[in-house]
Amino acid sequence: MGLRPAVRLCHLYPREMNIYADRGNIAVLHRRLAWRGFDLRVSESPPGERIRTGETDLFYLGGGQDRDQLGVAVDLQGHKAASVRSAAADGVAGLFVCGGYQLAGHEYRTVDGQAIGGIGALDVTTEADATRLVGNVEIESRLDTGRMRIFGYENHAGRSRLGPGSSPLGRVISGHGNNGEDRTEGALSGRFAGTYLHGPLLPKNPQLADWVLRLALEHRYGGKYELEPLDDHFEEAARRTAAALTARRRLAPRFRVRTR
Amino acid sequence: MIAVVRLAETVAGSAGALSRRLRLGGGTSIVGMVLNRLDPGAMERLAAETARRCVVLSGTNGKTTTARMLIACLAADGRSIAANTAGANLASGISAALLAAKRAGRRKDRNTGQETGRTGESVGVFEVDEAALNDIVRRLRPGLVLLMNLFRDQLDRYGELESVTERWVELAGSLPEDVTLLLNADDPALAFLGNGHPNTVLFGMADDHGNNRELSHAADTIRCRRCGEALSHDFVTVGHLGAWRCDSCGLHRPTPRFQASRVELRGFEGLSFSLLDSSGGRPEAFDVSVPIGGLPNAYNALAAASAARALGVPPETVSGALSQVDAAFGRSEQIFLQGRTLRLLLAKNPTGANENVRFVMSEESRLHVLILLNDRTADGRDPSWIWDVDYEPLLDRLDSLTLGGRRCWELALRFRYAGAPHDSFSVHERLPDALDDALSATPEGGTLWILPTYTAMLELRSELVRRGVAREFWETA
Fold first, then answer.
1. SS3 of A205-226
2. Of B382, B389, B392, which to mutate for an interface test with A (greatest number of A Cβ within 10 Å)?
3. For residue range A201-246, what is the model confidence (pLDDT) as tens digits?
4. Could you confirm whether A98 is annotated as catalytic?
5. Which entry of A30, A98, A156, A176 is annotated as an active-site residue?
6. Cα(A59)–Cα(A8) distance, rounded to whole angstroms?
7. Is A233 a catalytic residue?
8. What span, in angstroms and rounded, lies between the C-alpha atoms of A188 and A162?
9. At the N or C end, where does chain B have fewer CB atoms within 10 A?
10. Cβ–Cβ below 8 Å for B419 and A31
11. What's the complex ipTM?
């Protein structure tokens, strides 16, 4: 069993940060590797535990509620933030979704004005607003492997702004994105990617899933990795449905949901 | 002024009749929408006129069924009832129900199906949307507020679970002293909502009747509301509900006044338990049996029986009424079609869907299943939640699996990444096709388990009405 090549995933705070079905993303990473003869070895990193950075190829951090995010942020400042930053400098890959994306940046400021410190691996700062940005999203992304459309769902009170150290993951075709204003969505720095898109993110975006896996494999084994294509016709059908939803949304006026 | 009010009520009533005539729907919401628009004070006025003491109940899961059970108890006690039994649980549905009760007078009421010609005290029973609760309690001024559970559900609409909880804390703090606040002690998010409210009554499970469940992946309130540490459980029932305690700060589930003990689940046939009432010096117990199955319905029956007791309905009346109650449309409903038995189990959030999967697996060893996923407002626009449902244990037990609904391909991906091969299930974008395919995969005499979201359930029932085997929901409610 252990002889197959493997990607070592460090899942940060899986109990605390899982509000938008983040385990769907993990399932996609696991299956798309398995179908190609690779293993995914997942280690969970709960509060209070140190990260073994030398044994990680890929970090994952999902979404949580403000209350959970606060608790996690306190734990991050112990050792983890510094460990994750140094791993990033060593070429470890990372995928940060929704609340996890906010925590991967420098700071998240809640509606009450409380500042939550983040990992600082993405050049992003986020400030919460009283209104949430909610709905189906489509973005266009130009990654090193080519252009792709990414579909998902967003639901966030935070407005994120990028500094010069990160580029956006994509340009908003439909939806709100980072802040509802500058048409950017997500952030990229080296092998770290952050995004507000869930749904979950990876099942409908197999090209993005493979891009993340390639980065992780390149960290583990060096060189360039080509992953053999898979039968993604369910994925294509789900993308057609998602595209129809965002196309309809482009025609309709945008709305915001007030929650308090 | 009175003429204007009359006119508003007449116009609104006609809109409902027109909606039914045109087969647009039950007309239960349009009446209220027209009425609230023409006469914004209508709900307050009608509540004062029609229901002197009303009950408002809310929670993520079980609202419609619990309301139905409570109505049965109160009707058996001879009270006349205004209720939004068609599940229209926003301001419009409640105004419509109040108006219907008023107009029905002593006739049999078409919306509630209840005989209103009774001489007993009149009561309102209203199920209310979690987000609309504060506003509606303020306007209706109920005598009893029943809060059942809070699970992650429709995050796209409600925002975070935490913000719903905070609104409910505000509500509990603003209730007049004489209002009875009936809370589920097994939900750590609700158990202490009544702190400081003198008239708080709790209900919960006495034990886990040997089920040894564990917290599911999708369990929501797993941290102590006082100190934030992880909670431990003596037993777990549904989702994160159970006998919880915090080993860090010592906070624990308070002992409920109403407890269900010796819960016995008899599958689709129903369930029973002994209800202990520990109020006063001398505890009393009586048996409750309902012909609707599944552990969540034990909570619904416990909540309804506790509310009925708190409203003074005698134990034997509660027992008798609950033994006769039938399921609300689409919830544990059974329909016969082409020699097959169709069993409908509604769910639109992970906790509900997990319970349905568990229930189906306890019923039969080999299964034919049709799952329908829609993404309209009442379903939740965001279909992410299906990834928090534990469908995996189903895979080894399926003889056939059919997927349908507007987001059928999301379901297809859910099963693909659960490990089901492409050709092990079929997917149909059109509902009649999905139904036909699932029927043909189910042998004659067999059971087809249908697990729809809310609007998919409505569409499925319309399709069944077209095929002449089901009645419209406003006729069954």
1. CHHHHHHHHHHHHHHHHCCCCC
2. B382
3. 999 999 999 999 999 999 999 988 889 999 999 999 999 999 999 9
4. yes
5. A98
6. 9
7. no
8. 10
9. N
10. yes
11. 0.94
